[in-house]
Amino acid sequence: MTGPPSHVGFVGLGSMGSALARRLAGSGEVNLTVFDLDDSRCRELAAAGAVIAESPLDLAKVSDVVLTCLPTSQHVEAVVFNESGLADGLAEGGLLVDCTSGHPGLTRAIGARLAERGVAMVDAPVSGGPQGADAGTIALLAGGTAADVTRATTVLSLISPNVHHVGGLGAGHTVKLLNNILAAGHRMLAFETAAVAAANGVDPRTFIDAVNISSGRSNATQVTMPRHVFGEQLEQGFSLGLMAKDVSQGCTLYGPELDELCLAQEVEARLRAAVSRLGPDVDINTTLEIYEQAVGRTVATSKRDRA
């Protein structure tokens, strides 16, 4: 594999995007140019050595490879094709790598439009949260041709060695959405059962410790509960609204033949109810409070941002 390109652009510096961009800036392997509508986030990356672009167009003009990490695929489409967008600045032979938790159908449509301009696309959503990005352990789930993913990996491997080629363009987003359905369901069941354990006189931490040496264990019981529910800080930096969005998009992948069997739709309904009750901007772990209030018992021993 050849080395990384000399000039890389990054658009979208939210909590996840910033963490990914910091890894690139800290690698010392690329010249990084960034763009975000929030000037303060751009300045944070500039302090780490990045150059701030005036627009996505200007960023694309100086970049061999551009990474995006935005809230939805609709945001990606706008950044690419709107006035002063990436498409008009990307040279033929360029590469767009989308780290958004997006929708595979729209991703393939964006890729097809870019291909008409001679620009390749890879979807590479991430799993592991900002903490995993900062630690360099995050998983990158790449979809695209073998040649395009190999090229993208020269950049993505500067973020984490855990780059997995999961199929053609859109496959990364498919895997990410289905993964997040599992993650959301596991988390909600962990919160629910810990609350029920407390209501029945079992210490929640003791319950989770027992689950973690038993068959019910999951990332929610092995990581989320010890690190956040029983750790220092309940919140982990991922919003309830974003998780609800991912699960809702994931449910669109299901065919009608699964309507009567679909547990994912129940997870989606629970998340929508939580958004209505708590708001979209609260941390995903705040949903624990719904179960605590229902049984009249406290589960979390960690500090909470919410009073």
Task: Describe, in plain words, how this protein is organized in 3D.
The protein has 307 residues and is of the alpha/beta class. It has 2 domains: 7-169, Rossmann fold, CATH 3.40.50; 174-295, Orthogonal Bundle (N-(1-d-carboxylethyl)-l-norvaline Dehydrogenase, domain 2). It is 49% helix and 12% strand. It has 13 helices and 9 strands. Strands 3-2-1-4-5-6 form a 6-stranded parallel sheet, with helices on both faces. A 3-stranded mixed sheet has the order 7-8-9. α8 (171-199) crosses α10 (219-229), α8 (171-199) packs across α11 (240-251) and α8 runs parallel beside α13 (288-295). It starts with 6 loop residues before the first strand and ends in a 12-residue tail after the last helix. The mean pLDDT is 95.
Write a compact overview of the structure shown.
The chain is α/β, with parallel strands linked by helices.
